[in-house]
Amino acid sequence: MVEEVEVIRSGVLAGIPHGFLGRRGGVSQGVAAGLNVGLGADDAGEAVAENRRRAVAAVQPGARLVTVYQVHSPDAVIVGEPWADDARPRADALVTVRPGLLLAVVTADCAPVLLADAEAGVIGAAHAGWRGAHGGVLESTVAAMERLGADRGRIAAAIGPAIAQDSYEVDSGFREAFESADERFFAAGREGHWQFDLEAYVAHRLQGAGITRIEPLGLDTYADEGRFFSFRRATHRGEPNYGRQFSLIGLPG
Predict the structure, then answer these.
(1) Torsion angle (degrees, nearest 10) of CA 159, 160, 161, 163
(2) In contact, 59 and 16? CB cutoff 8 Å
(3) R_g over Cα of the chain
(4) How would you label 43-65 residue by residue, b for 16+ Cβ within 10 Å and e otherwise?
(5) pLDDT digits (tens, 9 = 90+) for 39-90
(6) Cβ atoms 196, 185 nearer than 8 A
(7) Which CATH code is given to the segment(s) 7-162+214-250?
(8) pTM for the model
């Protein structure tokens, strides 16, 4: 029996085609077993292509998938037409007003954020690791959505599966990259270390950008091995690579 693709949805995005996916329902084998959609996971190309096809079919059948080459930047791009995989812009967020396009970001511990102003018909997807969130990728996404006619007062945002605070130990160098006002996102850990709350920090940055309808899903990629891929878990185990999962959003057409 073929396992179905698991699609995790958010209440604040009801009525908008979207989904946070994990590793369930794919055909990849080995360390990336499951629904790996990452092009850099040393996975068989045909398996990744099939997983991507399944992901699109599970969220918005017939839509055209659009991704970017993610680099932990603060940059958001406006999408008018899909581009080839080898022509993807280097950015970490996408926004559009075009029905039939399915915006996607890949993650493996970083926080995926899906956003929509349903009234204006403007959507966005952002890859918000600590570096991107700290650098302003969420603010850039909201600004790009407003250039397309969105109103930040109407935008709803959902924060998908990401590494949770209990699983995210960081050192003093990491802590020093943040401002003193961010102290509340760090819990004391073993000597010289802290536990960082990425999901809460991402929500804080969204709030600072004027977003009031925010739903953190509270799903830990590191702890739930059967459901999600995790870069940090793979690293701790000394595995040669790791899978990546999709978060997708489109407009009804």
Answers:
(1) -20
(2) no
(3) 17
(4) beeebbeebbebbbebbbeebeb
(5) 988 999 999 999 999 999 999 999 999 999 999 999 999 999 999 988 999 9
(6) yes
(7) 3.60.140.10
(8) 0.98
Q: What digits encode the pLDDT tens for the residues 126-159? A: 999 999 999 999 999 999 999 999 999 999 999 9
Q: Which residue has the tokens 């999962």?
A: 245
CA distance 3 to 79: 32
Closest CA to 36 of 111, 120, 134, 107: 107
